Amino acid sequence: MREKPMEERENGVRTAHLTGALPMSEMLETYVDVGEFLGCCAVCPRCGRMWSCPPYDFDPEEVWLRYAAVTLYAVQVFPESGAAKTAALADPEMFLRPYRRALDTLLEERERETPGSLRLDAGRCLVCERCARRDAQPCRFPEKLRYSLESLGANVGALAADRLGAPLQWGTRNAAPEYFVLVGALLTKGE
Predict the structure, then answer these.
(1) Which residues lie below 8 Å from residue 71, measured CB to CB, with a gap of 6+?
(2) Chain centre distance of CA 30
(3) For the segment 160-185, what is each residue's pLDDT rounded down to a tens digit?
(4) Rounded Cα gap, residues 43 and 1, in angstroms
(5) What's the sign of the alpha-carbon dihedral 41, 158, 115, 61?
(6) Model pTM above 0.70
(7) Is 112 within 8 Å of 133 (Cβ atoms)?
């Protein structure tokens, strides 16, 4: 299921808010491959340096098995003005930060409204500026820590393309992509 996107424009940037849902059986069969995607995480410089990133002291597959359904929430960010394109090219992570924070807030609200659910953020944890794991310390805010879809073995590229109609795009050294996609999810006990 995919709903028609809600669009907004501000400061030379257009955004589209996307949602989709699927049963956990389909998620596991089609979009989760823990070995493959944790292998991708292993080459990331954040691997082992953030509590929201592998390696974990738990089996990510077991997280998926506790839930019956997945609702995807995404924001598609189109830098349209020259200034927005320049900012997106100069520092994509900082350019996307306000959209990521807004998506995190939405996911937090959905999680609070849905007893027994678990939100998965659109990337690494943003709670602390410097993760305590880098200093071999336990997480300072374990109640706020959430993982991302990809860090638990989900194929975000396939989910974005198949379930949200927004295939991931990649920019080049000289050009930002037409759009960026941030994808989070809510795992729920009921279908």
Answers:
(1) 19, 20, 21, 110, 185, 186, 188
(2) 18
(3) 999 999 999 998 888 889 999 999 99
(4) 33
(5) negative
(6) yes
(7) no
